[in-house]
Design goal:
This is MH2 domain-containing protein. InterPro entries: SMAD-like_dom_sf, SMAD_dom_Dwarfin-type, SMAD_FHA_dom_sf. Residues 68-127 form the MH2 domain. It comes from Strongylus vulgaris (Blood worm). The chain contains two helices and eight strands. With 127 residues, it is mainly β. The strands form three sheets. It has a four-stranded antiparallel beta sheet, with no helix packed on it. It has a two-stranded antiparallel ribbon with strand order 5-6. It has a two-stranded parallel ribbon with strand order 7-8. The protein has helices at 35-40, 119-125; strands at residues 6-8, 17-20, 25-32, 44-47, 69-75, 78-86, 92-94, 104-106. It folds into two domains: 6-47, no CATH class; 65-125, no CATH class.
C-alpha cells in the first residue's frame, strides 16, 4: 500500500518543512531567514540529503576540439603563422616574442619572409 506524501510548510522563521513517507518523518529542508526576508515575508530553503551528488568536473584537459578562441594573423593579404588556439577566455596579444604561455599570442614570434615595410611600425603598436 502506497503511503501518502505529506508536506507542511510555514513562513515562520523557526519552523521547517516535514515530509512523511510512512512511519518516519524526515526533515526535507531547513529554512533560513534574515531581517529583509521577514519584511518581504519570504523564506529560503536549502535541501538536505544523505546521498552524494555527482558533479561534472570543473576543468577538463584542453584539446584541439574545445578551443574558445581561434586567431588567424594576416599582414595585408598574406596569412602569417599557424592558427592560434586558446582554451580560456583570458588572452594576451602583444608584439613581443612568446614565452610559451598558452594564453599569450605574441606577434613577434611570427616570421614573414615577404613582410612589407609598412607592417613593421604597426606591429610595434600592438600590445
Amino acid at each position: 500500500k502506497a503511503q501518502p506524501l505529506v508536506t507542511a510548510t510555514t513562513s515562520a522563521p523557526t519552523e521547517f518543512a516535514l515530509q512523511s513517507t510512512g512511519s518516519r518523518p524526515e526533515v526535507a529542508a531547513a529554512p533560513t531567514t534574515s531581517t529583509a526576508d521577514e519584511q518581504c515575508n519570504t523564506m529560503h530553503v536549502m535541501p538536505i540529503s544523505d546521498e552524494e551528488i555527482e558533479r561534472p568536473p570543473r576543468h577538463k584537459l584542453p584539446s584541439e576540439d574545445d578551443a574558445v578562441v581561434n586567431i588567424l594573423h594576416y599582414e595585408f593579404k598574406d596569412r602569417v603563422g599557424p592558427p592560434f588556439k586558446c582554451h580560456t577566455l583570458n588572452l594576451w596579444v602583444d608584439g613581443f616574442c612568446g614565452s610559451g604561455d598558452p594564453t599569450r599570442y605574441s606577434l613577434g614570434s611570427l616570421g614573414n619572409s615577404s613582410r612589407q615595410p609598412g607592417v613593421i611600425p604597426v606591429r610595434g603598436q600592438i600590445g
